[in-house]
Amino acid sequence: MGKTSLIHALAKNSAAVLKTQAITFSGGAIDTPGEYAQIPRFYSALLVTSLAADVVLLLSDAAKPAFALPPNFAGMFVRPVVGVVTKIDLPGADPAKAESCLRQAGVASSVFPVSVVSGEGIGALYQFLEERRCDL
Ligand SMILES: Nc1nc2c(ncn2[C@@H]2O[C@H](COP(=O)(O)OP(=O)(O)OP(=O)(O)O)[C@@H](O)[C@H]2O)c(=O)[nH]1
Ligand SMILES: [Mg+2]
Fold this sequence. Notes:
Elements: H1 3-10, E1 24-26, E2 29-31, H2 35-38, H3 43-50, E3 56-61, E4 81-86, H4 95-104, E5 111-113, H5 122-131
Parallel strand pairs: 3-4, 4-5
Antiparallel strand pairs: 1-2
The protein binds guanosine-5'-triphosphate (GTP) and magnesium ion.
């Protein structure tokens, strides 16, 4: 999906990206294992952890857009939820479908298309988070 890669890109962190095995506080960001959004038993952990955040970013992979989340998943969070479409650099990427997956999951406000490979969209998302005084 690209969560850890995105956190590294926003924080200008060049460390290697490994599979996230637990909820991790990484600088000002909170990173989560992808499984936590796929297995409903883990939703409560996401909800509790989100209370420590100013903004929740919900990602959708443009290279593999899938309606993987239940309708209005985003509505569970008390914090504002913003959409991010990742990997828009990949051949065959379908950012419009990835955005519609996010909309179906209840993302009502901004959706940022990004690529950590080309850097496209990272600046706009960085600025958005900075304006909301989010730590990175
Ligand atoms: N081409 C391309 N590849 C990307 C991009 N973002 C992430 N990737 C690749 O996608 C793979 C998964 O990225 P991660 O950042 O580990 O994804 P994650 O959502 O943190 O995954 P989990 O920790 O397993 O939940 C890695 O091989 C990344 O290099 C992107 O914008 N473009
Ligand atoms: Mg990760």
